[in-house]
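Researcher: We're reviewing a set of sequences before deciding which ones to prioritize for further study. For each one, I'd like a predicted 3D structure that I can look through quickly. This is branched-chain-amino-acid transaminase. If possible, include the structure in token form so it fits the rest of the review sheet.
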Amino acid sequence: MNKTLTININKSKHSKLETTNFDELSFGQIISDHMFVAEYKDGEWQDLRIEPYGPLQINPANATLHYGQSVFEGLKAYRNEAGEILVFRGDANQRRLNESAQRMCIPEVPEEIFMEGMRKLLEVDKDWIPKQAGCSLYIRPFIFAADDYLGIRPSNNYKFMILTSPVGNYYSKPVAVKVETQYARAVEGGTGAAKAAGNYAGSLFPARKAQKEGYDQLLWTDGKTHQYIEESGTMNVMFVIDGTLITAPISTGTILKGITRDSVLILAKEMGMPVEERFLTVSELEDALLSGRLEEAFGTGTAATVAFIRLINIHNKDYVLPEKAAGAFSDRVLKRLDDIKYGKVADDHGWIMKI
Ligand SMILES: *Cc1c(COP(=O)(O)O)cnc(C)c1O
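Model: Here's the predicted structure for branched-chain-amino-acid transaminase, in token form for your review sheet.
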């Protein structure tokens, strides 16, 4: 791919900007005016374009509809005080998209197509990046199989697309979670480390069961013994026990390599916080709750950045976490991350890409 990239732009004649209420944004409901599209045909990515957001023509025999050969990403663009557009760790999302793609036999998207496609789309839809404090533009790149064929094999044709969606001031309420010991999200050798569409379909049923019982989300355990805490449905999960930050390692291939997770671990070390990447057992977690040594528990992910956990259900027993102390690690690291994302402090890590 040494050709210079040509991205054709076909602008929408009917912007939804005027009729969108930026003061009441719920996650994922409103899609901005344009979308980026690239087609994989004859062994290469081609026909790069930006067009008005709208329906696709899909043949009912489309392979993705039947077999779920599809992967996605999620990242965000923020506005700093000067009104400039900042994207947080987009290079990490680009690499992870290709790691997910590899696992699902999907051709990788070259870095320049991902980056230029995203950059152009953000330029065209820059007015969709909210100016309100705490708001941002969620970016959803995804790749899916485009063959019309009912046989099971990797598709020959694919689409790579990027959508964006303005999201609100997402100070999530502290969540109640349930430790899941019957169903599994991932197993060793499976697809848990990939942001693959099917992983999420498979987790809906157990998650809905927990929601009916009054819990917001699950804490998944390992698929083999259900003794080790892995992660939550769309977030990695971290615990502070006796002043040490503990989170599951990513070496088993059963845990999604969260970019927020990685960022929090890097910042924790810089903040002088002892860090352990190791599996916490369910009984160790229960002991820490019973003896009052569990100081904090939280999920990490692009949507909420840090989601505080207020209650954990283990084997049908609810444990309420202690009130967060002043100067709690999760509060401090959330503020530090937000300051970096909104360009309020220097970007010492090279995490910010200016559009
Ligand atoms: C996307 C995702 C996360 C969080 O990853 P970030 O890069 O921090 O947004 C964690 N777990 C699962 C299962 C995910 O899909």
